[in-house]
Automatic annotation (TrEMBL):
This is SAM domain-containing protein. It comes from Pagothenia borchgrevinki. PANTHER family: PROTEIN AVEUGLE, STERILE ALPHA MOTIF DOMAIN CONTAINING PROTEIN 10. Residues 10-76 form the SAM domain. Pfam families: SAM_2 (PF07647). It comes from the Eukaryota.
């Protein structure tokens, strides 16, 4: 998957690409909902279990799988932001 930019900058199409790569079995349920609700990367990072339920992911186990992967994306986003801050500090 060629998703190299910040998750918070992802378009709806990039969220779909990520979801297809990590949760292909849930794509039937999620694809229409992601498009309908314009789930961008910024929105993806803020999803909670009740949001997933509203999007059609009703099984708690499936919600937790998705939320774990979203948590990893959040951590990656934070690390990238810290790297940016550190590189700005050292380049001054």
């Amino acid at each position: 998957m060629g998703l190299s930019k910040r998750v918070s900058s992802w378009s709806v199409e990039e969220v779909l690409e990520w979801m297809q790569g990590y949760h292909p079995a849930k794509m039937d349920t999620l694809q229409k909902a992601i498009i309908k609700h314009a789930i961008s990367g910024r929105v993806l990072l803020r999803l909670k279990d009740h949001h997933l339920e509203l999007l059609g992911v009703e099984a708690e186990e499936q919600q937790q799988e998705i939320l774990q992967d979203v948590l990893l994306l959040k951590v990656q986003e934070e690390v990238n932001e810290l790297n940016d801050i550190c590189s700005e500090c050292f380049s001054s």
